[in-house]
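seq/struct pair 1
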Amino acid sequence: MTPGRAALTGQAEDYLKVIYEIERDGEAAATTAIAERLHIAPASVSGMVRRLARQGLVVVERYRGVRLTPKGRRVALQMIRRHRVLESYLVTRLGYGWDGVHDEAERLEHAASPDLIDRMAAALGDPTVDPHGAPIPRADGTVDDARLPVLNDLAVGEQGRVARMSDRDPALLRYLGELGIRPGVTLRLVDRAPFDGPLTVAVGRARHVIGVTVATRVYIRDDRR
């Protein structure tokens, strides 16, 4: 059984996942940031945070925000594993498009048992990343989830290989797919307009002009490393 999961609602599990994702950027999860990710009012966050703190899943740092305890991190990673294995199974075995699996996985992850998730993962050959390039936590709760630079961090003339992108916005995924920007593809920054203007990116022989907002949501690895 996932640690602490028996007493948690699906909403509480969603909170833990979101707090983990925000913490990946090196900061405590502020109430406003949690509310924004969950599309709820900030005033609604405080009560749930207090309940999670009483269960030993989070600690509140005054004036900074919320951080997961080791127990909370284990639960969050198990939920993230469920989500990403489900996405992988839906795409690989059931023919879902990579832009349409996030919401479906969100609905299924709270009901799926650990055994079912492990069987799905085994049937897929225990993949290490999901269809969007995000690392899948292992059954033992470990994960290779290092912080990565984004496309917008490249200097003109530099290139990098697409590692991952967020699965939360189907329209963005469809747009990136139309441009040929997917995990594993090498991109080169050809030009950057001044004053936060758009970027010109080479994808193979094609050239595309994309906005800074898009460029901050595509994570890359340096091909030289």
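seq/struct pair 2
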Amino acid sequence: MRNAPLKTLILSAILIIASSSYSFGKIVDKIVAVINDEVITQSEVDRILYPIYLQYKEVYKSDEDLYRTLDETRLNILKQLVNDKLILSEAKKLGVGVSETEIDEHVESIKEDLKKKGMDFDRLMKEQNLAIGDIRVRYVDQIKIQKTIDLEIRSKIKVQPSETSDYYRDNIEDYSQPEQVAVLAILIKLETVRTPIESRKLAGDIHNMLLDGEDFKRVAMNYSEGPNRESGGNLGYVERGQLLREIDNVIFFLKPGNISDVIETPIGYHILKVYDRKDEKVLPFEEVRPKVTETLYRQKAQAMLSEWLEKLSSNAYISIK
């Protein structure tokens, strides 16, 4: 619980920031802010801004919109860096240190997080022309920030049982499970080398095979053109609104084990089988107690962090250049 991440006010420790070899134009590094005896340089801001810039330039069509958004993002990054420096200054006062073992564990954690996202740590390091020594130095500050927050915020948070039950009662709608059906699906696309008539005939032939008792999953693996083909067309549990309206209008009225008629949509022809159903219900308190406690913990942590940072800021020397 106490290791749950806090949002926004701390820069992400997962993303590896790009090297300073990019160019927004020629940049001369300079100090842009001083916080007690900590400084923020232009290159620190721009290293974080650069990967965001690469994403934004694919989204915004006009330079005016792009650079207005970048200016706002740059300001937010600076504010976050100021918060980080405030915490690092406090870490120094408290004598918070970082061991080599902690850095090793942090690096391995980052590698695992990136792996889950389909990204390779070593390849990213090579692409960004970064040495492991440089990354380890940056991670020292990240670990100090987290340890200081653990010490000053997380260790002081308590969630009482009465608070948990009261929150559950006051927000009961958040703990309601909507009606769900578990679905297998076969899709025959319209936009193929076949004509629409040929696609409709193929869907009809497949439908007849299923009605004759062929195994739905096996048929889906052989014929479906949908993204879940390899799993036998298994979409798992779905709620109303998650699939196309034409499909919703059918599957929520099927009993488990039943197969739909051929359903036509702008995408193509669909055949679906419902294999399980969960009726709408309110999840019992004991089942969601950990989730409710976690929600309250995060709310308290965010409020305490904001209050603590305001106090640090009011007692600090801060100069924005």
